Amino acid sequence: MGSITAENRKSLMLFSGRGFPALAEEIGAVLGVDPTPMDAYDFANGEIFVRYRDSVRGSDAFVVQSMVRPINEWLVESLIMVDALKRGSAKRITVVLPYYPYSRQDKKHRGREPISARLVADLYKTAGANRILTVDLHTAQIQGFFNGPVDHLFAMNILAEYVESKYAGRPMTVVAPDSGRVRVAERWTDRLGGCPLAFAHKTRAPGQPTRVVAQRVIGEVEGRVCLIVDDMIDTGSTICKAADILFTEGAADVIVAATHPVLSDPATERLRNSKISEVVVTNTLPLPDDKHLDKITVLSIAPLIARAIREVFDDGSVTTLFGGLS
Predict the structure, then answer these.
(1) Is the pTM of this model over 0.85?
(2) Number of domains observed in the structure of the chain
(3) Mean pLDDT of 4-14
(4) Dist CA 35 CA 19 (whole Å)
């Protein structure tokens, strides 16, 4: 009877893709669990091979993969990792995606367009994933794309604690860079004690979804520290244009808080040349050396993810753990 109990005891195993292994190692350090050794390499034709060196049978497996460039390679690698775990008889497989790939393709804007965020969810389910754990989805509806539990974590508290400690005592306004971020900005105003809310109304160039051609600010910004909040910074166009108009409207200072530092070119150059004094991000994605700027502050997301993994493993409540937002 004792041997059966030992065999049935749950085992937490952590697995790291090659996209950003340093984050998985940091998560493992918080959990006290080392990532399981894995052989992973590319064949001459580009196909990916994965094999775990240790038995995964009966384990509660957590696959951590950060979707850095080349994003499609790491997406496929994570799918192959899940398949290998399924065929190795892992008991439960949770895919940990600090940054959910294709999250901006969450609906059809015109005919004959894909809903790629849904396709990604279907691929993970087909590969054998039982659960997805992710941080700050671009839109909450993506949670419904996966046929299984989705733990949606928020980095707001991590970012807000830093902002509160550094800018305490200065009058602040939270700014949504567009109308789609207003609900996120409202949560920020509540978190920061009810400070004013403003938003930038922007018009995009026809047929060019990444090009903003005009903006105006609605809200109280004159003489205040303006905190622009967003889920990600990609090319930096939106936040830099918002910062320009905020200074035009009399803002005393402009800072930015965003979870995912995608930083596609020419984002670094735009941020360097902007009047934005500080950009606070997390390490859901790595920041390459050539994209480091003195004004960019990186906070670790590892403790948040590690706590969520522990809660999932212990069959606890992730929603309760993170203030009912998950």
Answers:
(1) yes
(2) 2
(3) 67
(4) 14
